[in-house]
Design goal:
Number of strands: 0
GO biological process, one term: negative regulation of DNA-templated transcription
Helix content: over 70%
CATH class of the largest domain: Mainly Alpha
Structural class: mainly alpha
CATH architecture of the largest domain: Orthogonal Bundle
Number of domains: 2
Pfam families: TetR_C_3 (PF08362), TetR_N (PF00440)
Keywords: DNA-binding
InterPro entries: Homeodomain-like_sf, HTH-type_TetR-like_transc_reg, HTH_TetR, Tet_transcr_reg_TetR-rel_C_sf, Tscrpt_reg_YcdC_C
Radius of gyration: 20 Å
GO molecular function: DNA binding
Length: 210
């Protein structure tokens, strides 16, 4: 095996191992919280020796940061870019669909993010003060432009964004409650599309777009 192939194989093994560890860590942090989770419990859930975990990550803090970074990357990729050319209705539809899909397909990512925020965002303060604040202000300004030009109802654009976040993420963060009330063991295939359709209609009506 030449050097390039060997390095490629090693890189693949490393990526797979790290992904397995982070999946296990995410579950542990959700179930036990940051304080309750341990490197050993993460190793047990991943089915790996503790030494293997520490080979890839220095300590629990390092693992937690990696889990959050992966979540933020996923959040950033899946958020759906709102384009001025879309117009308010299409932009809202895209925004809601993107957030609902993330909640249904990656509920753990939403839960770990919510838990971090609820606990004071100690590990996400820089993200919240820089990227997140900038993103929200830019999108709020765009909605305000559509409001000022008479393309949608006169509402508070910040609260519109907060409302979309909360209603879409509810299906991940409160998954157990929803499934219990609906008497379902798990979400069904049509649930995701039904939620997208309902929330889109609900928000568009509230924005005077229907």
């Amino acid at each position: 095996m030449n050097v390039a192939k060997k390095e490629s194989k090693q890189g693949t093994i490393r990526a797979l191992s790290e992904a397995k560890i982070l999946e296990a860590a995410q579950e542990e942090f959700i179930l036990q919280g940051f304080k309750g989770a341990t490197v050993q419990s993460i190793a047990d859930r991943a089915g790996l020796p503790k030494a293997n975990i520490l080979y890839y990550f220095k300590n629990k803090d390092n693992i937690y940061h990696a889990v959050l970074e992966r979540t933020l990357d996923m959040w950033d990729e899946g958020i759906g870019d709102i384009d001025p050319q879309d117009g308010p209705a299409a932009a809202i539809e895209k925004f809601i669909a993107s957030k609902v899909r993330m909640s249904f397909q990656h509920p753990g990512a939403s839960k770990i993010y919510a838990m971090e925020i609820i606990q004071g965002a100690q590990h996400l303060k820089d993200f919240a003060r820089t990227y997140l604040r900038k993103w929200v202000r830019e999108k709020a300004a765009l909605f305000q432009h559509w409001i000022d030009s008479g393309q949608m109802a006169d509402i508070n654009p910040y609260h519109l964004i907060f409302a979309i976040w909360s209603t879409t993420q509810h299906y991940a963060d409160f998954e157990t409650q929803i499934l219990t009330v609906m008497n379902q063991a798990d979400y069904e295939e049509e649930d995701e599309q039904q939620v997208i359709a309902f929330l889109t209609d609900f928000v568009l009506r509230g924005c005077g777009l229907k």
